[in-house]
Design brief:
extended, about 60% helix, mainly alpha
Length: about 80
């Protein structure tokens, strides 16, 4: 099933872009905080999880998958049950 229902609604696109920017800013700030405090394992865990976003050469090319939880639940409950 690959019907992704991609939107070009500018308000939604702008809101999601702003959320992604906020996550990026938080992640970079926390990474720097951990590095400055010699919390190397915590910094590396962030770098491992958010590598594509933290890499300045690739951050604009990394796709962000978004789903609406209500839409996902509605889809789940609309699917027929299968045994096996």
């Amino acid at each position: 099933m690959s019907n992704y229902n991609i939107t070009d609604d500018s308000a939604t696109v702008d809101r999601l872009s702003e959320q992604r920017d906020d996550i990026y800013d938080w992640c970079v700030e926390r990474f720097r905080y951990h590095m400055a405090n010699d919390n190397i394992n915590e910094a590396l865990a962030l770098a491992d999880e958010f590598f594509e976003w933290m890499d300045p050469d690739n951050m604009e090319n990394e796709e962000t998958a978004f789903y609406n939880e209500d839409d996902l639940l509605n889809l789940f409950f609309s699917l027929p049950e299968t045994n096996g």
